[in-house]
User: Which sequence fits this backbone?
């Protein structure tokens, strides 16, 4: 019997698009490959860690049942100046799934990548508590509160290394497969456009059914954005209140209010805020290796020609959250390009940024199918080439 090929997976960041990692893993296993090592950041760290812990099927079943109201219930807002969401509820769900698991005890070599804002370096978790490592790696700056420990302020690994191929350089495997979930697509393809026809029809029907419930996703997403905008705006006021001991004025008659009531008024304001916009895509920046990573000696790929500005285009009304997420997306997409150029994987699966927004976590079923479909295409190309 032929020996099974060993493989290492680099699972990149990308928010909800990281659900595609599940489909990639399923396709890799279905073809008989032996996964020996996984390196991941952000959503890639979460999916990779759960797979290594042997709980990917249970996690898949859970996320595929989530609609956008379930996702909203998992959001625990905080008034911390370092982030808008604590992520305690989602971590409680993960703890119920994988328990007190240590990375060094896993049957697969796992590296979870985070970023230390103090040292401005990558941090590689290759031992210790798996949940703590995942929590540090998913802390999107300004959105999810950072993890503070050992004089470090740890945030999303995608800030410096959105496609962590470098931790796999020393892996003793036959091939490396990387999944870039922040890929640039010039055609701006949607999830439905990229799926096979039968799966696309199923996804469209599912989205239509969700849209018909409770006013639809567009209203829900607008509400979330409005709330987030108010949170980001309120943080400045909260900082002043905490530092100067100032009381906020009541909207009724200008009567001063104690700090607790001021916070309550801010929460009420979330419900009546006006803001619009849309999350975005694009690409372009350069990385830095650390903790055993090999220094790159290759020239970065040349940047594309800048696009011409249309003076007649309507002015966009993006809010703070949209500006921040678009900027983060662009940086991640470009860093991923440099990582791929510096450490080319044997197989590359690319998930375009246009298939869904980073926070559309209710679309797991379609994204998992997309990941498996694109992985099958990439593996077909590789296997055909290696046979020839």
Assistant:
């Amino acid at each position: 019997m032929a020996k099974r090929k060993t493989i290492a997976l680099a699972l990149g960041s990308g928010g909800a698009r990281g659900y595609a990692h599940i489909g990639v893993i399923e396709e890799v296993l279905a073809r008989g490959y032996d996964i020996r090592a996984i390196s991941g950041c952000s959503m890639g760290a979460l999916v990779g860690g759960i797979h290594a812990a042997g709980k990917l099927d249970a996690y898949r079943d859970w996320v595929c049942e989530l609609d956008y109201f379930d996702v909203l219930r998992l959001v625990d807002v905080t008034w911390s100046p370092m982030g808008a969401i604590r992520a305690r509820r989602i971590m409680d769900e993960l703890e119920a799934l994988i328990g007190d698991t240590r990375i060094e005890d896993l049957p697969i070599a796992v590296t979870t990548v985070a970023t230390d804002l103090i040292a401005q370096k990558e941090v590689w978790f290759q031992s210790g508590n798996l949940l703590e490592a995942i929590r540090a790696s998913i802390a999107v700056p300004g959105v999810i509160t950072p993890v503070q420990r050992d004089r470090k302020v740890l945030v999303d690994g995608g800030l410096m290394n959105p496609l962590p191929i470098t931790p796999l350089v020393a892996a003793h495997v036959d091939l490396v497969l990387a999944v870039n979930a922040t890929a640039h697509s010039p055609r701006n393809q949607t999830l439905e456009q990229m799926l096979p026809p039968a799966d696309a029809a199923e996804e469209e029907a599912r989205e239509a059914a969700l849209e018909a419930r409770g006013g639809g996703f567009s209203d829900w997403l607008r509400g979330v954005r409005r709330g987030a905008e108010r949170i980001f705006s309120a943080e400045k006021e909260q900082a002043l209140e905490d530092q100067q001991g100032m009381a906020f004025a009541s909207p009724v008659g200008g009567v001063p209010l104690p700090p607790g009531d001021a916070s309550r008024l801010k929460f009420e304001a979330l419900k009546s805020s006006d803001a619009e916009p849309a999350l975005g895509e694009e690409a372009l920046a350069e990385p830095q290796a650390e903790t055993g990573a090999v220094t790159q000696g290759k020239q970065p790929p040349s940047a594309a020609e800048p696009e011409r500005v249309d003076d007649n285009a309507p002015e966009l009304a993006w809010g703070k959250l949209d500006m921040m997420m678009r900027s983060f997306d662009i940086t991640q997409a470009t860093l991923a390009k440099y990582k791929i150029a510096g450490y080319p994987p044997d197989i590359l699966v690319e998930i375009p940024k246009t298939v869904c927004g980073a926070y559309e976590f209710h679309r797991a079923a379609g994204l998992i199918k997309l990941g498996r479909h694109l992985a099958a295409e990439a593996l077909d190309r590789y296997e055909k080439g290696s046979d020839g």
